[in-house]
Amino acid sequence: MSAAAIPLPPALAAMLALAAGTFLLRLSGPALRARVTLPERAGKLLEVSAVLLLAALAATSALTEDHTFTGPARPLGVLTGGVLAWRRAPFLVVVLASAGTTALLRLAGVP
């Protein structure tokens, strides 16, 4: 039985193509780093845009669920975690305090 006789399902072919494209894209970064230089302003804008993207993701996941407002319990839990992270608390403390704040508020009847 030859390899040409085995059909390649379209889903598997698509996955292999995406995997190869992802690998080549990831490889192009280090390969082009020495050849392409960005202006200083563009580099700073890229750094700021990454922070803004993460902030938008955090705000969206903290404030909405199923295209509706989650209620004040989750945003207050996220705010608690943000303040503790800003004060450089250990990661475990930040996560437990955030979850605990949200759980206690929901236990008290806050949506």
Describe it for me?
- The structure is a single chain.
- With 111 residues, the chain is mainly alpha-helical.
- Helices cover 71% and strands 4% of the residues.
- The chain is built from four helices and two strands.
- The chain has helices at residues 10-33, 40-63, 73-86, 91-107; strands at 64-65, 68-69.
- Strands 1-2 form a two-stranded antiparallel sheet.
- A hairpin with a 2-residue loop joins strand 1 (64-65) and strand 2 (68-69).
- Helix 3 (73-86) runs antiparallel to helix 4 (91-107).
- The longest helix has 24 residues, at 10-33.
- The mean pLDDT is 91.
Question: What is the end-to-end distance?
Answer: 63 Å
Instruction: Compute the number of strand runs.
Output: 2
Order of helices and strands: HHEEHH
Mean pLDDT: 91
Summarize the main sheet. Answer: 2 strands, antiparallel
Overall structural class, as computed from helix and strand content, comes to mainly alpha
Overall 3D geometry? extended
User: Helix content range of the residues, please?
Assistant: over 70%
Major β-sheet strand ordering: 1-2
Radius of gyration from the CA trace?
23 Å
Low-confidence stretches: none
Number of helices: 4
Bin the strand percentage.
under 5%
